[in-house]
Automatic annotation (TrEMBL):
Gene3D superfamilies per record: 2.20.70.10, duf1285 like domain, duf1285 protein
Name listed for the protein in its UniProt record: DUF1285 domain-containing protein
Coiled coil: none
Pfam families membership: DUF1285_C, DUF1285_N
Positions of the DUF1285 domain: 31-98, 99-192
Ranges that cross the membrane: none
Taxonomic lineage from the root: Bacteria, Pseudomonadati, Pseudomonadota, Alphaproteobacteria, Hyphomicrobiales
Domain of life: Bacteria
């Protein structure tokens, strides 16, 4: 079990983090976590599983409102550590894949003028645009894994069913002197893979 400074076990850490937010918890939009720089207080036994489920001390957190609260104070620091941050405390947590899942997609229009927006598993609404691009990776079996930037260096894994929907919207296009398969949306072409890699 990870201990807090001075050897105290992390009892009540969820309550402490909630209390530290104070009035921030009721504000609209995410708290200004990028401006907060409290001391790092070590890791707590919190984990975000690959399926998007949040766990504390090995048990799922069953209250969606509490998960949304903690998701709102999530940040990825420059050293690669994922932390929960309040004005007075910063604690590390484990993330198995991505901290969020993109679970719903709305599409309007066609071609480069197409607008796409996603809803995450914690109810963030994220447009596909220059500030919220897609990136594509391969899983261990060679399958496509798209990620959407939510904020800062926090990304949402696009669910498999939405991945199929994205691929259906794709097209081949020359980009940078090469032929790519990609997704035109938000005024730009989002590269998925070289066209030669299509099977």
């Amino acid at each position: 079990m990870t201990n807090e400074p001075h050897g105290a076990p992390p009892q009540g850490v969820l309550e402490r983090l909630s209390a530290a937010l104070g009035s921030e918890a009721g504000r609209r939009g995410p708290p200004p976590v990028e401006r907060w720089n409290p001391d790092y207080c070590g890791e707590i036994p919190m984990r975000i599983a690959a399926d998007g489920t949040w766990h504390y001390n090995g048990s799922p957190i069953g209250r969606p409102a509490l998960v949304r609260l903690f998701a709102s104070i999530l940040r990825r620091d420059p050293d690669g550590r994922t932390v929960l941050v309040t004005p007075v405390e910063r604690v590390g947590i484990e993330v198995e894949d991505a901290p969020f899942l993109a679970v719903e997609m709305a599409v309007e229009g066609e071609g480069d003028g197409r607008s796409i927006a996603f809803r995450t598993n914690v109810d963030d609404l994220v447009p596909l645009d220059g500030d919220h691009p897609l990136r594509f990776e391969r899983d261990a079996e060679g399958g496509l894994k798209p990620y959407l930037r939510v904020r800062g260096d926090l990304w949402a894994l696009v669910t498999r069913s939405l991945t199929y929907d994205l691929v259906e919207l794709g097209e081949e296009r020359e980009d940078g002197g090469e032929l790519w398969f990609g997704l035109p949306a938000g005024g730009r072409f989002h590269r998925i893979m070289p066209a030669a890699d299509l099977s």
